[in-house]
Amino acid sequence: MYASPASYVAGLPRPDRCLVMGVVNVTPDSFSDGGVWFEPAAAIAHGLFLQGAGADLVDVGGESTRPGAERPSVREELDRVLPVVSSLSRQGVVVSVDTMRAEVAVEAVRAGARAVNDVSGGSADAAMLAAVAGLDVPLIVMHWRGHSTTMQAKATYTEVVSDVRAELRARVEAALAAGIRSEHIAVDPGLGFAKTGEHNWGLLAHLGSLLELGFPLIVGASRKAFIGTLLAEDGQTRPVDARDHASAAISTLAAAGGAWCVRVHDVPSSLDAVKVASRWARAAT
Ligand code: PMM
Q1: Ligand 1 centre and the CA of 283: distance in Å?
Q2: pTM for this structure?
Q3: I need a labelling partner for 244 at 20 to 30 A (CA). Which of 110, 194, 251, 270 fits?
Q4: Residue of the nearest CA to atom 10 in ligand 1?
Q5: Nearest ligand 1 atom to alpha carbon 221
Q6: CATH class assigned to 19-284
Q7: CA of 263: how far to CAs of 57, 70, 255, 260, in Å?
Q8: Residue extents of the structural domains in the chain
Q9: Cα–Cα dist 125/139, whole Å
Q10: Ligand 1 pocket by C-beta < 6 Å: which residues?
């Protein structure tokens, strides 16, 4: 059950366990926390809170990827993320910027971001991979098939695990060809992006197959709809704000399955979870 210990991404923290990435969505409409951290001061305070709670890194995003979401303009996205990235970075928080736009990635790294988290794996903006190569920072390459307005129509697979693995491999090869160093790449199955709940569970249950790509693996399950469906009672989906225990359970299993990092909204529960997984794995060796 226990895959080899989490590998490292150059330039990011290296605790002796799976990393915990806390999420700050500076958006009016993200499904998990939309609108709550939309004002810069609130987003900054939340980022500091997540760091204080033990987050190894804090992911700042200005574009909602909820199914059906409309995209903000580049200017709007920059205005959302830059003040937050720069303030958190100045205060010692390790920040990744969650963006599909090269221009936003470049400006965010100039403002202090230490990594780029592109949910499109460099597919949405033809300039992204070369830009990240030029910045010489880590890139999270997520599996993605299209923007939020169209993605659920693309949730068809011959076999989800091998299809996602092959598509991720192609994106990693594109990243390497663009000049991104291999020690700067992490991969992500993109739970919920052009995927049904069934697909998400299949991917979680086969993280080992994704580890075969040979890159650190990040898992972003926190508060997603498939958890709400699992925990539904009397036909009522479990509300977003009551999915953190299950999210932490997934963090435990992901860490035990060899994940390098989990991307979560509630940091304390997942930090405890990955500590348990790490201690358990040590006892098993
Ligand atoms: N999910 C969301 C946004 N960004 N980034 C990565 N690397 N992996 C994810 O699974 C992911 C992501 C959407 O969820 P949110 O609205 O809670 O941020």
Answers
A1: 32
A2: 0.96
A3: 194
A4: 220
A5: 10
A6: alpha beta
A7: 9, 23, 12, 10
A8: 19-284
A9: 14
A10: 23, 25, 30-32, 65, 98, 117, 119, 140, 142, 188, 190-191, 218, 220, 223, 263
